[in-house]
Each structure stands twice: as structure tokens, then as C-alpha cells.
UniProtKB/TrEMBL annotation:
InterPro entries per record: Cyt_P450, Cyt_P450_CS, Cyt_P450_E_grp-I, Cyt_P450_sf
Cofactor(s) it depends on: heme
Lineage: superkingdom: Eukaryota
Keywords: Heme, Iron, Membrane, Metal-binding, Monooxygenase, Oxidoreductase, Transmembrane, Transmembrane helix
Transmembrane segments: 6-24
Protein name per its UniProtKB record: Cytochrome P450
Keyword hit for Transport: no
Organism: Brassica napus
PROSITE patterns, per the entry: CYTOCHROME_P450 (PS00086)
Protease found in the keyword field: no
Family membership noted in the UniProt record: Belongs to the cytochrome P450 family.
Listed Gene3D superfamilies: Cytochrome P450
Length: 415
């Protein structure tokens, strides 16, 4: 059955290419055919809308243009023999409906679980009760992790199990996430398995993937944008210097965690610049959901049970109707209110940290860590972009730069 489908698809693709090159392209001209196919993204027999991808030569830019034209939502029809049909939406009203107001009807689904089976049954990959148990532990453990500084997640499972761990935290020390998971109270979280090495491995792998690649990607894009916008860099330097406590500038005493947090909280413009970088280059560039029961979205589109909904967050940050005509510009001012504070943007519009009950639990830790890293770098180094490099995204699960970011770092000896 599958081989017949493939054969028919090959014939159709072949016919389409003949038709495209020898009839339409020759007679109608390239621009006309491109415009026509973009406008209608024809649903071809057998092939669905797959041929449209051939004429979307500008890749993601064409897709962005097309989704805006379609009022932020459209149904992509894949070839009939595949399960590629998907509703693509970046409509904030739909996002709010899917991620928050009708959250219980929209799950990640079994396909997602299969694709990311490397994470096993850890929080990132689960739905329903198991997810709820993990989410609850996440929040209680997170406050512990935030306090802990500099402890690496080495594989100390056996060490902790046989020798126990320092339960006495009266000295202010707290334990790391691995230890906390090993010691989970199973009467409270009955679906979790702290005695199972696989559960611990999946959990720690998830936290490393969730926290490490996202932060490094966000910082790379931030510096890529910053170094191309000298006026933003100058404003951030000014903000850092104006707010730096006197004791810190003269290196009289080390930072306490409280000093550091209070200081970082004052860096409003830097906060806005980081959000702006993640609006344009969200480290997690898309979300995928599947309805348990059929439903109608606020945009009026009907979704069947088990169908696929894709939310391309990268595209959402580029929609004129959502962010305005200057949407493609890097403008930290967008995030600053008239009184100089931070302007709140709802998470169903700024989806970099997800929205609703599945909002990233590491959001505040991530923002604080990134701000601290940026301040340290900018205070101690002159950072310059190496000219002539191509800066472009590599569309993956995490939106890294295709060739990395090449910069020179020169130590500032005066600091
Ligand atoms: C710039 C940094 C970060 C960004 C942009 C980010 C973004 C996200 C996004 C979009 C999701 C939803 C993923 C999905 O459901 O498919 C998520 C979930 C998650 N993030 Fe983050 N994250 C960041 C940093 C962190 C950090 C530092 C941690 C912890 C160490 C963390 C832990 C998690 C966890 C555990 C989940 C799963 C939550 C759940 O499914 O309920 N993240 N994050």
C-alpha cells in the first residue's frame, strides 16, 4: 500500500515539475507563477500543497509573507499518503485558546513523545497526571536550584544513595536538582520513580537540554543583534554603569545573591533587549499541539481530534498585524513603557517561554542568568563582530545560528 502511494506521488511530482517548467514557467513567467502559487498554495491531487514549497524560493520569508496574507492561520495539506496535514497558526487569540483557556484539550500527543523519546517520560515529553506530578516537583525544587551556585550535575546517584546527602541545610547550602529528585517524597508524587535510574537520567537530561541550549542560543542571537546596533549597546553600557552599586565598582566586597538580583532587576533596558532578541529569534522556534476532542478555534477554524496544530513562534515574532510595521526591526524600546518600566506583553503574543500552565518553569532563572552573563561580558571585554560572516538561523528544535557567531574579545584592563 505504502509503495503504491509513493509511486503515485512520484508520478504526480514528475507531472507537476513538467507542467511547471515547460508550461507555466515558460508561458506565464516566473514571477506570475510564484505569485499565483503563493496566493493560493494549491491543494494538488495526491501531492497536496507540497509543490508550493518548490516555489517558496526565499524559504521562511515566503512562508512569513504567506501566513500574514492568510490572516495568521491556514491549513497545510500534505501529500495524501502521509500524515502531514497541519493547521498552522500564529493568531494570538488561537494561541491563548490552545495554551490557556482550553488547555486540557490540547496535548503534545503520542507522535511528539515518539520523536523526542530521548527524553523518556520526563516533564518535557509527558501529558496529563504524570506531567502534573513533575510540574509540581519542578516548582518546589526550582527555588532550591536557584539558590545553589556553581554546583555541577555530576553523576552522583550511587554516592548519594549509599552515603546519603547532607540533609542539614542550616548552613544555607541547598541541594542540586539530581539529589532533590533522588530524595523525592513518593507519597506526594506517586507517579514519579526516584529509585529508577532511567527516570533520573531522563529528568536530568531534560533539564540540561532545556536550560543549556536555550540560554546559549538566546545569548548568541542577543550578541549578534547587539553588535549590529551600537546605539543599543551604548544604552546598555550606560544602564549598567548608572545602576552599578559603588561598592561593586571599587571591588570592595563580593556580591551577595540579594545584591546581585536587586541590581539585575534594575536593568530594564537590558531586559527589554533580551526579550526583543527572543521575539525575533525564539530559542524554541515552534510548538506542536494536538486536540483530544474536536474544537473550533477563535479564528473560526475547525480542528479534528488528533489533528496536528503547529505554532511557528519564529513567524509569530515577524507578523506585522501582531507587532506593527516595524516588526522586523530590533527595537528594545518596544518593551519599555512610557514611565520607563517594563512594558508587559502577554505570553500568547510573546511565546518564547511558552504560555499557560506549561509556561517554562526556568523563565526567571534564565532571564537572571542571561542578564548576569551579559553584564559580566560587557563590563570586562570589548566585543566586536568579525566582518563578512553570514548570520542566519539553522531551523532545528533549538534555533541555533547556522555558522555560529564569530567575535573578537579584548580584555578591558581598566575594569
Ligand atoms: C532562554 C532560556 C529558555 C527558553 C527560551 C525556554 C523556553 C521554553 C519553552 C518554549 C518551553 C516549552 C517547551 C514545550 O513544551 O515544547 C520550555 C519548557 C521547559 N523549560 Fe524552558 N526555556 C529556557 C530556559 C530554561 C531553564 C534555564 C530551565 C531549567 C533549568 C528550563 C526548564 C524547562 C522545563 C523543565 C520545561 C518543561 C515544562 C513543561 O513541560 O511543563 N528552561 N522552556
Amino acid at each position: 500500500m505504502a509503495s503504491i502511494g509513493l509511486f503515485e506521488a512520484s508520478i504526480s511530482l514528475f507531472c507537476f515539475l513538467i507542467f511547471y517548467y515547460f508550461f507555466i514557467k515558460k508561458n506565464c513567467g516566473y514571477l506570475l507563477i510564484k505569485k499565483t502559487l503563493q496566493s493560493y498554495a494549491w491543494n494538488w491531487p495526491v501531492l497536496g500543497m507540497l509543490p508550493a514549497l518548490f516555489v517558496w524560493h526565499n524559504g521562511i520569508d515566503d512562508i512569513i509573507w504567506f501566513i500574514e496574507k492568510k490572516n495568521l492561520t491556514f491549513l497545510f495539506k500534505g501529500p495524501w499518503f502521509t500524515r502531514m496535514d497541519a493547521l498552522i497558526t500564529v493568531d494570538p487569540a488561537n494561541i491563548h485558546h490552545i495554551f490557556s483557556s482550553n488547555f486540557s484539550n490540547y496535548i503534545k500527543g503520542s507522535d511528539f513523545n515518539e520523536i523526542f523519546d530521548v527524553f523518556g517520560d520526563a516533564i518535557f515529553n509527558t501529558d496529563s497526571e504524570l506531567w502534573k506530578n513533575q510540574r509540581m516537583t519542578c516548582f518546589s525544587l526550582f527555588s532550591i536550584a536557584i539558590q545553589r551556585k556553581g554546583q555541577s550535575w555530576t553523576c552522583r546517584i550511587e554516592e548519594i544513595r549509599s552515603q546519603g546527602f547532607d540533609h542539614d541545610h542550616s548552613n544555607g547550602e541547598s541541594e542540586d536538582l539530581l539529589t532533590s529528585h533522588i530524595k523525592l517524597d513518593t507519597s506526594k508524587y506517586e507517579l514519579l520513580k526516584p529509585n529508577d535510574d532511567k527516570f533520573l537520567r531522563d529528568t536530568i537530561l531534560t533539564f540540561i537540554a532545556a536550560g543549556r541550549d536555550t540560554i546559549s542560543t538566546a545569548l548568541t542571537w542577543f550578541f549578534g543583534l547587539l553588535l549590529k546596533h551600537p546605539y543599543v549597546e551604548a544604552k546598555i553600557h550606560q544602564e549598567i554603569n548608572t545602576n552599578l552599586p559603588k561598592s561593586r565598582s571599587s571591588q570592595e566586597r563580593p556580591w551577595s545573591a540579594i545584591d546581585r538580583k536587586a541590581y539585575l532587576n534594575k536593568l530594564v533596558y537590558l531586559h527589554g533587549a533580551l526579550c526583543e532578541a527572543m521575539r525575533l529569534y525564539p530559542p524554541v522556534p515552534f510548538q506542536r499541539k494536538s486536540p483530544i476532542k474536536s474544537d473550533v478555534l477563535p479564528s473560526g477554524h475547525k480542528v479534528d481530534a488528533n489533528s496536528i496544530i503547529i505554532i511557528p513562534i519564529y513567524v509569530l515574532g515577524r507578523m506585522r498585524s501582531v507587532w506593527g510595521d516595524d516588526t522586523l526591526e530590533f527595537k528594545p524600546e518596544r518593551w519599555i513603557s512610557e514611565t520607563g518600566g517594563l512594558r508587559h506583553e502577554p505570553s500568547f503574543k510573546f511565546l518564547a517561554f511558552n504560555s499557560g500552565p506549561r509556561t517554562c518553569p526556568g523563565k526567571h532563572l534564565a532571564m537572571t542568568s542571561m542578564k548576569a552573563i551579559i553584564v559580566e561580558i560587557l563590563q570586562h571585554y570589548d566585543v566586536k563582530l568579525i566582518e563578512g560572516q553570514k548570520i542566519e538561523p539553522k531551523p532545528r528544535l533549538v534555533l541555533q545560528m547556522n555558522h555560529g557567531l564569530r567575535v573578537t574579545l579584548t580584555k578591558k584592563y581598566s575594569s
